[in-house]
Design goal:
By secondary structure, the protein is mostly helical. It has one domain. 63% of the residues lie in helices and 0% in strands. It contains seven helices and no strands. It has helices at 2-10, 28-39, 46-53, 58-72, 75-82, 89-97, 99-104.
Length: 107
């Protein structure tokens, strides 16, 4: 889980498009995996998170993740990657549209 948190905070990736509005700088799978870990109640390796991201406790982690999600996640960006991994296109669409609401239950 700590590796996934580091990936969604620090991964450098960019999908270029002719239209700036359609440019994507996140991997949707990182944000889906975060959801999966949180819904399972899995705790991160706090020692690793402190060393790699300076995050000391769950309150700080929730604040950092909430800010990151609000800053970079949009339904279009999230679904771009997820549609390649999840076969249920309706689930991907619904999950992507409602990600912020879904995650607010965990963060």
């Amino acid at each position: 889980m700590s590796g996934k948190i580091n990936a969604l905070l620090f991964r450098v990736w960019f999908k270029e498009s002719g239209n700036k509005k359609n440019q994507i700088e996140i991997k949707g799978r990182d944000f889906y995996d975060l959801y999966w870990f949180l819904q399972k109640g899995i705790e991160p390796n706090w020692k690793m998170l402190k060393k790699t991201a300076g995050i000391k406790d769950s309150k700080e982690l929730k604040n950092v993740l909430t800010k990151r999600i609000k800053k970079v996640v949009t339904p279009q960006k999230l679904s771009y990657d997820l549609k390649n991994f999840l076969s249920d296109s309706q689930f991907v669409e619904d999950f992507s549209k409602n990600y912020l609401t879904i995650m607010s239950r965990f963060l």
